[in-house]
Amino acid sequence: EVQLVESGGGSVQPGGSLRLSCAASGFSFSFTGMSWGRQAPGKGLEWIANMNTGGGSTYYSNSVKGRFTISRDNAKNMLYLQLDSLKPEDTAMYYCAKGRHYSNEGDEGIERGQGTQVTVSS
User: Which of 17, 45, 52, 112 is the residue whose CA sits 20 to 30 A from 102?
Assistant: First the structure.
């Protein structure tokens, strides 16, 4: 059974940082591209970052490029997202998911975790 468990969310002031983690199990993590997405209240799911199996290829949406960094540790079956220079508009539920997903392609049939909430406010 595929399990993806996100953690590390919380409340932070604008300009602050957080590090999200995703613990993966039930599939061959080191052979699977992975993604982070987010969904703000009243909005659709946005895929904001992805990484290939070896970590040498990444994608970032324009909304987070230069501020967020995706990484992975295949030995530990862990996916990470470093969030820096946070803005109020980054407030959302953040999800990790199997596969490499882009922008607004939706989430039909995509295996993802339950999410971790990030709130940015002063």
Answer: 17
